[in-house]
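FIELD: query
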Amino acid sequence: MADHVPCTARNETPLERADRNFGELLQELRVTQTGVQILFAFLLTLAFTPRFPSLDPVQRATYVTTLLLAVLAAALFTAPAALHRSLFQRGAKPRVVQVSSRLATIGMGVLVLAFTGSVLLVVDVTTGRAGGVAAGAATLCVCLGLWWLLPRLVRRAGLSAEQQAPQQGAQQAAPVVRQPGAPLDGAVHREPPVRRR
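FIELD: result
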């Protein structure tokens, strides 16, 4: 019976919350899986191009590593569906959501490395090693900035806004007190908010 008591600001039960969270996670995975599929298809076809045999050992190692990272990312992004299917109707939805979220987070990290490797390889082959390393490093920085740093900055800004809101609310709620003998020209004196212990 405890599972049917609303538990959040959205007035949803734990099971409803788990269902909503899993639905949102699946939407995120649909976006990332498309990128992984395109990258994986590109890497698979690359091995059958006429220029592939002319790659040097570093380029081949980059190719194999990137291909394996793309496979690992695809496996991590599809694992939540397999996990859900295996545990379907066994009362494990909150745990499935928790584990799936971790798998997706790890998958995003692996995908960053796969993107970096693929850009490194393509630019290395087309312009040279220095250009490839620079382009790979730039790709890594952009992905880390957008996927790791930006969410933390947004979360920090949200937390500081939440902390400032009660303080501003307390200041706005302070009663207006006219001091005896004070002019009636609209200048008011606000009592400082009383802090409760």
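FIELD: remark
The first helix runs from residue 14 to 46.
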